[in-house]
Amino acid sequence: MKSVTEYLWFDTIERRAYINITDKVRDIVRQSGIKEGICLVNARHITASVYINDAENGLIKDFDNWLERLAPHDPVSQYRHNRTGEDNADAHLKRQIMGRDVVIAVTQGKLDFGPWEQIYYGEFDGRRRKSVLVKVIGE
Q1: In tens digits, what is the pLDDT along the chain, a chain of 139 residues?
Q2: Angle at the Cα of 126 (from 86 to 120), degrees rounded to 5?
Q3: Which of 52, 61, 108, 120 is the most buried (most CB within 10 A)?
């Protein structure tokens, strides 16, 4: 059994961003040399997410609008967490909805996706450096 760990780093200017990281993860899997196994991809911050969905711009905007309706940023006073001096309670809630991580099968050295599947990093409280863990395990 072999294991390879890499980190992807993000510095977003916007509070919310959706970044397709599929090609970066594919490169890590290819460079790992692992032919059969799994690939874990997880956000290492409590206001960011990793998820799998379609890489269609309208859908990405739909996600953003939907999340903002479910957990609007403003008014920041609506959240108890923001009484601590933070203004990012909505980002914590958005992360819970979109999830922390994904696991993808590695088959014949490649990510074993269904049609249209892509890996995204979802940022819900940008403006500071954050990372994603990519761990490939297998043989």
Answers
A1: 999 999 999 999 999 999 999 999 999 999 999 999 999 999 999 999 999 999 999 999 999 999 999 999 999 999 999 999 999 999 999 999 999 999 999 999 999 999 999 999 999 999 899 999 999 999 9
A2: 130
A3: 120
Q: How far apart are CA 16 and CA 96, in angstroms?
A: 15
User: What is the rounded CA–CA span in Å between residue 90 and residue 47?
Assistant: 9
pTM: 0.96
DSSP 65: H
- How far is the C-alpha of 60 from the C-alpha of 70, rounded, in Å? 15
CA atoms within a 13 Å half-sphere pointing along the CA-CB vector of 9: 3
Alpha-carbon Rg for the chain, nearest whole angstrom, is: 16
**Which residue segments constitute the domains of the chain, with CATH numbers given?**
2-138 (2.60.120.460)
Q: State whether residue 25 is helix, strand or coil.
A: helix
